Amino acid sequence: MAEVDYGHFVDWDQMGDLAKSGGPSKLDCKDPRELKQLARQGYWSKNHKLRAQVYQQLIKAIPCRTVTPDAEVYRDIVDSVAGKRAPASIPLPEFVDGSPVPKYCLKADGVGAAHKIMSCVASQFPDISHCPALPAMTALLLHFSPDEAQCFEHVCRLLACNEPGRRMLDQTFLAYESSCMTFGDLANKYCPTAHKLIVATAQDVLEVYSDWMHWVLGDLPFSHVARVLDVFLVEGYKVLYRVALALLKFYRKQKAGQQQPSGQDTSGVRGNIQAFVQGIGSCVSPDKLLEKAFAIRLFSRKEITLLQLTNEKSLQQKGITVKQRRFYSHCEGHEPTLLIIKTTDAEVCGAFLSTDWDERKRGGNKLSFFGTGECFVFRLKPEMERYEWVVIRHPELASAIQAKNDEPSEEETPAQPQNSDTNTLPAAESRADPTDRLSPFLSARHFHLNSRNTSMFMAGNFDSIIVGGGDGNALYIDAELNHGRTGRCTTFDNPPLCTETFQISLLEVWGFQDAMSSS
What we know:
Layout: H1 32-41, H2 48-60, H3 71-82, H4 108-124, H5 134-143, H6 148-159, H7 173-190, H8 192-201, H9 205-209, H10 212-219, H11 222-235, H12 238-255, H13 266-278, H14 286-293, H15 301-318, H16 325-331, E1 337-343, E2 348-353, E3 376-381, E4 385-388, H17 390-393, H18 427-432, E5 458-460, E6 464-467, E7 475-478, E8 483-485, E9 501-511, H19 515-518
Antiparallel strand pairs: 1-2, 1-9, 2-3, 3-4, 5-6, 6-7, 7-8, 8-9
Helix pairs in contact: 1-11, 3-4, 3-6, 4-5, 4-6, 5-6, 7-8, 7-12, 7-15, 8-12, 10-12, 11-12, 11-14, 12-14
């Protein structure tokens, strides 16, 4: 059976007519323009084996980095990367941003194989920060690969493409976000009626358009997305824009004549489009979809490139380049951490943070403070200064719970807070003798504080990262790690660490590990 070589992961019972192999059995074409026409016509779309062979030929011809991981690399690393876990239980890389693996008529072990492949891809491409299209692309290529290793090689070649002006998959949040803006620009110009419908019905148009890539690589049925892949591997990224615009046109046509509520919840509009795309097979054939996509006139790669570059520049000027959630994924498991910020005004400041950021989860969705008196904030430029926990500098603010020699041991009697003045260390005496300084390793619970504001060390959720609390924050960083503010706070009694409202040029976090605990 012809499908044995290239259909190991496919559930043929779900493939319908695609399970029937017909049409040409070989392709002898070297002229790029002829190949482009054949791809659009679906020359190899009815023969699974031929399709797989053409894909292999097209992907092999992609110019790539000098060192690009291949099938042998996969065989060498898969056991150490994936381990003995069930493949489907292997977590997808953070950079896919929660995008699941579409089933695309794959067997269960095919979906598991996709998890393994992407885990290995992540280990070989540490520079990828955002690539939500990867699960869909991996699942598609599994259909036309003889084994996991070959699929891994194909995915790597798409990611490692280095031909000037040619894009295959977005790999950064900046590229992805600018593509959403570019799609909005194209929709406004080439699908004005459909665009007006989205503007009239959705509260946030850009949020609707942020799904454009997922409409094509994720929501489309396999029969349709496979035809898109035929052309994508020949013509590149612009095909995805064309198909998404065609989907928007068909969606508008379906809604024509229907009463549409204005300003409805954006999630409702997004859900409506997703449902339409997922069920498009009932009203639009794969060939009809491509016909509509390529009927859009005056649509060039040059125009897309210029729009993309313009939007990227705009986002960079606003400081929108990354998604904040990766901050936590890189920091969790490290204790302590050192946070360093360089602003666009060349000021440098930061914080030494004593506790694993994973502790923030204990508060659920509620923003709650944690950490210990080890925390401190500092600035390095224009001048150097460090600001410790206010209780360290002013012990009179608290009463240390320290057992005296003549008191029962901790095992006999739990320590109780003491309010007596005799247990309060005078500030002058503390400063005179360094050995009398309170240990910064003591946490807030060791003290009887006159205000909880003096123990607000660190806090974070998906909306913000905060260091220091009370009347203000020593550092406040927004969700996208682009902007922040600084001011005097009760915890550290510090002045602003830099310009009070700032834009982040560079943010680094260094994690430390106890050598003894890791041995």
